[in-house]
């Protein structure tokens, strides 16, 4: 998984009824776009994440097309 600052990280719900969580990558802490990432959620909360297989990166340049 590779991400850049400004990309969106989507963590898919793991159980029925659980919604996806989306956050913005504000800093890439790994080498060459690799995790971990500092992310910011819509409520302003920030966290360090090393995404697992339930996550997807939406690249900033893909969202503008």
From TrEMBL:
Region Disordered: start-end pairs: 1-21
Comp. bias intervals (Basic and acidic residues): 1-10
InterPro entries named among the record's database cross-references: DUF1918
Ranges of residues in domain DUF1918: 1-57
Protein name in the entry: DUF1918 domain-containing protein
Species this chain originates from: Streptomyces rameus
Lineage: Bacteria, Bacillati, Actinomycetota, Actinomycetes, Kitasatosporales
